Amino acid sequence: MSFLTLTDVSKSFGDLHAVAGINLSVEKGEFVSLLGPSGCGKTTTLQMIAGFIETTRGRITLDGRDITHTKPNRRGLGIVFQSYALFPHMSVAQNVSFGLEMRGVDKAERNHRVREALALVRLDSLAHRFPRELSGGQRQRVAIARAIVIAPPVLLLDEPMSNLDAKLREDMQFELRAIQRKIGTTTIMVTHDQSEALSISDRVVVMEAGRITQIDTPYRAYERPENRFVSQFIGKANMLAGTVVARDGDAIRIDLGQDLAQTGSIAQLSSRGQGQGHAHGIDVGDAVTLCIRPEKLRLCAPGEGRLSGNVTSRFFLGSQWLYRLDSRVGEMLVCCQNEGNEPFSEGAQVGIDWHADSLRLIAEERAHG
Ligand SMILES: Nc1ncnc2c1ncn2[C@@H]1O[C@H](COP(=O)(O)OP(=O)(O)OP(=O)(O)O)[C@@H](O)[C@H]1O
Ligand SMILES: [Mg+2]
Question: Which of 2, 12, 17, 237 is 20 to 30 A from 168, comparing alpha carbons?
Answer without folding.
Answer: 237
